[in-house]
Amino acid sequence: MDNILWILVFIGTFLIMEFMAWFTHKYIMHGILWSLHKDHHHKKHDSWFERNDLFFIFYAVVSISLFLTWRYADFWAGLPLGLGIFAYGLAYFFVHDIFIHQRFKLLRNANNWYAKGVRRAHKMHHKHLGKDDGECFGMLFVPFKYFKK
Description:
Layout: H1 2-32, H2 34-41, H3 53-72, H4 78-100, H5 113-126
Helix pairs in contact: 1-2, 1-4, 3-4
């Protein structure tokens, strides 16, 4: 029973992180912290690092903190929670930074149904250069309209 609960917490955390990414993106990144996210929409900088990357670092700190509470505070759920956040961050990194934005020149030829839909949705998000009037703030689960030909 403990293993099933651990797995459910891990999977649940991963899925909830998509909602957290959507919420943070729509209301925080395109809201009060637009100043950190703006350089992601306006490529007017020469640095590989974007201020927008600080959001990734924030969630890494949350994940590490949960690992530490599992290890040192004997909080059993800290491990599956921390791993769920880490796994989502890894998936987000591969999809967003590597596949979509090509920050590393990998996965260039992925051209299946899912890849095309995610790419279309993100392209529609980036067509809005300001913080207002955006669309499609999620990452891994995007509306079905982007998967239609």
